[in-house]
User: Which sequence fits this backbone?
């Protein structure tokens, strides 16, 4: 379990242990690292107690909730989002319909239910928060970059722990050099920095290093490699959801309408237009 910045994609913290514990258990250990920023989280972190503990850190929350959850409606706002109480704390629920138009003209829709501690619908409109939640998926690039196709060689827990920390350390060391490089080009999105280019440059410097007992060299070589291999501006993309194992003991999901492999979408729109189901107000 890792906590990561969405802009620079730098690590804030990470924790791992036995598989007998679930994601919320490890997420609790990362909560002390939060400050007066915003936490984006998916549907694995929707327990009432976890939400309360996360909000107690002072961070704002934006969490995707299970669509089947029917919270009590405390107050309906003009934009049809609504307020509720969880463990005595006010939260705002937003139902958003998202439509993506692919490059081939095919239109795909989905519905999201988001929860946030930002209660003012005027300063934080629903469509802006829906677009902000989209930034959470950028964090998956860390897992894809570090672990796709990689097999950890250790055969015992202590060796695996060393390998994982080594991978995360290399990742974190390279991120500042990548961000410093991008900052030399004002207005450049830090997400355009190519991690693979930085990693290859660092690897080459280690392989060809000589007289390395002196002061550590600067990161100029890595920065130049990043600037020479900037990724293109970010494009809206969409792809089908996949599972690691195609065989499952659970029921078959509906036919996937999203493209596989990933494709480019021309437009991505969101609207909050659903009236919440009315329940007894919380006490």
Assistant:
């Amino acid at each position: 379990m890792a906590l990561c910045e969405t802009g620079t994609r730098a690590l804030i913290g990470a924790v791992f242990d036995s598989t007998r514990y679930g994601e919320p258990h490890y997420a609790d250990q990362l909560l002390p690292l939060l400050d007066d920023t915003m936490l984006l989280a998916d549907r694995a972190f929707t327990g009432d107690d976890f939400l309360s503990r996360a909000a107690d850190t002072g961070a704002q929350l934006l969490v995707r909730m299970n669509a089947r959850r029917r919270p009590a409606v405390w107050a309906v706002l003009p934009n049809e989002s609504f307020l509720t109480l969880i463990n005595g704390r006010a939260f705002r629920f937003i139902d958003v319909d998202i439509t993506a138009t692919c490059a081939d003209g095919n239109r795909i829709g989905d519905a999201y239910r988001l929860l946030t501690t930002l209660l003012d619908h005027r300063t934080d409109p629903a469509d802006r928060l829906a677009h902000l939640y989209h930034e959470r998926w950028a964090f998956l690039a860390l897992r894809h970059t570090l672990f796709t196709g990689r097999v950890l060689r250790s055969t015992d827990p202590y060796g695996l722990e060393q390998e994982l920390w080594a991978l995360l350390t290399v990742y974190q060391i390279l991120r500042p050099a990548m961000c410093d490089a991008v900052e030399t080009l004002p207005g450049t999105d830090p997400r355009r920095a190519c991690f693979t280019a930085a990693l290859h440059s660092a690897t080459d410097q280690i392989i060809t290093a000589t007289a390395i007992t002196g002061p550590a060299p600067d990161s100029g070589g890595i920065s130049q490699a990043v600037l020479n291999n900037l990724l293109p501006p970010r494009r809206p993309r969409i792809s089908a959801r996949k599972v690691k194992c195609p065989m499952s003991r659970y029921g078959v999901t509906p036919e996937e309408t999203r493209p596989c492999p990933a494709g480019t979408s021309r437009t991505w729109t969101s609207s909050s237009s659903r009236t919440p189901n009315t329940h007894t107000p919380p006490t």
User: Anything to note?
Assistant: The chain has a mean pLDDT of 82. Residues 21 and 27 are 11 Å apart (CA to CA). The first strand starts at residue 2 and ends at 4.
